[in-house]
Specification:
The complex is a heterodimer. By secondary structure, chain A is α+β, with helices and mostly antiparallel strands. Helix content of chain A is about 35%, strand content about 25%. In chain A, α1 packs parallel to α4 and α4 runs antiparallel to α6. Chain B has a single domain, classed as Glutaredoxin (3-Layer(aba) Sandwich), CATH 3.40.30. The chains are: A alpha+beta, B alpha+beta. The structure holds adenosine-5'-diphosphate and magnesium ion (MG).
Chain lengths: ~180, ~120
Amino acid sequence: MEELSLHILDIAENSIKANASFVTIEIIEDIDTDKMEIEITDNGFGMSDKMIEKALSPFFSTRTTRKIGLGLPLFKDTVEACEGSIKLTSEINRGTKVYASLRHSHIDRPPLGEIADTILMLVISYPDRDFLYRHKKGNREFTFDTREIKEILGTEVSINHPEVRSWLLETLKSGEKELN
Amino acid sequence: MNLEELRKLKEKAQADLKVRAESAKIKIIVGMGTCGIAAGARPVMQAFLEEVERRNLKDVLITQSGCKGICAMEPVVDVEIEGEKSITYGYMTPEKAKKVIAEHIVNGTPVSEYIVSTQG
Ligand SMILES: Nc1ncnc2c1ncn2[C@@H]1O[C@H](COP(=O)(O)OP(=O)(O)O)[C@@H](O)[C@H]1O
Ligand SMILES: [Mg+2]
């Protein structure tokens, strides 16, 4: 994957498939310690210990369309290529957490890329799920919470309506910009 | 987040919003499995969204599905129009997405050169 934000999209899709109703995506960039952390947490149906073990090695998937899993091993490869490590924790019927920590300045580290697009795609494709996105960079922080947005929109207006969509993209883009 | 702006936006368009949510007659479904994402599905979906917005097309829902097992042809997009056979496009790009909107969605003629399968 050319961008970390594409890995994030892919990992979050796993959460959706696990029937999560709430997904948290957190990115912490700390230049001082030269660290970048990415954490995706969900309240989906979780994985057994056996599955956790298998999931990080390629060729494991519970899908039936193709017998090999790719998303997690691919992310692991990217992270490990940047002197990083990945940790997968999960509990059946409680949820799953994918945590990655990598060296920020590593020459092989893909750029974060269009994270606003990743969040937007998730939010509008799954209007019945909630997402909390938080991005910290040094001492700046941007938080985006669909629960807050839906509270305003009420039941009459869907979060994936085109007019709302423009506002979402605008909000995400400007929030990201202000971190720099 | 500028929630005040969101509040105004809600009031302004509320009547129109009601119609839209329930009854999309056209569905555009972008495959967002790992292979799809790696092959460029996200910008393809972005292009569909922008094009639908730019032309102010009503009745079009753009959404995504997981992997369908035809990874070699990613990015893959299904177009489902009420009362018609559903069509799968393969090897999609943002440019091709624009053409699908113009020819298939607006003019009603599927873009045969991008079709990889037809169902239903
Ligand atoms: N968040 C999650 N919750 C529950 N199960 C998960 C989660 N993420 C991954 N899994 C399990 O791990 C398997 C491998 O995931 P992945 O590498 O992304 O491949 P794929 O999604 O293509 O199956 C999935 O099929 C699923 O069974
Ligand atoms: Mg996956």
